[in-house]
Amino acid sequence: MIVVTRLDGRQFALNPDLIERIFESPDTTVVMADGANYIVTESMSDIIEKIARFRARIISMAYDYSDDVEQQHSPPKLSVIHPSENPSS
């Protein structure tokens, strides 16, 4: 979830996977997949950055979880493929 701020100063959390569109004209409006609209104080670029950080944190948590599982000698729940690795070698 990402935390955003209504025009009256109240904060609330949005599921970034359900955001369909974000636009500024001049207020920032977040349009959800279900059609709900939220006008927020954050800029469009701030919301996009929050989404990117949220997704990076999820990947990082999954990667850390995978490392913990491997240390317990159990099969990993997540495999991370690094682009620098060549699968054909």
Alpha plus pi helix count: 1
CATH architecture annotation name: Beta Barrel
Q: Unreliable segments (pLDDT under 50, ≥5 consecutive)?
A: none
Mean pLDDT over all positions? 86
Which structural class do the helices and strands define? Answer: alpha+beta
Looking at the structure, the CATH topology is: OB fold (Dihydrolipoamide Acetyltransferase, E2P)
Strand content: 25-35%
CATH class descriptor name: Mainly Beta
Order of helices and strands: EEEEEH
- Give the proportion of residues in helices: 25-40%
Could you give the count of β-strands?
Answer: 5
Shape: elongated
For the report, how would you describe the main beta sheet?
3 strands, antiparallel
Strand order of the largest sheet: 3-4-5
Count of the domains: 1
Entry summary:
By secondary structure, this protein is α+β, with helices and mostly antiparallel strands. The chain is 31% helix and 26% strand.
Describe this entry's structure for a reader.
With about 90 residues, the chain is α+β, with helices and mostly antiparallel strands. It has one helix spanning about 45-70; strands spanning about 1-5, 10-15, 20-25, 30, 35-40. It has one domain (about 1-70): OB fold (Dihydrolipoamide Acetyltransferase, E2P). It is built from 1 helix and 5 strands, in the order βββββα. The strands form 2 sheets. It has a 3-stranded antiparallel sheet with strand order 3-4-5, with no helix packed on it. The chain starts with a strand and ends in an 18-residue tail after the last helix. Keywords: Cell projection, Cilium, Flagellum. It holds the Pfam family FlbD. This is Flagellar protein FlbD.
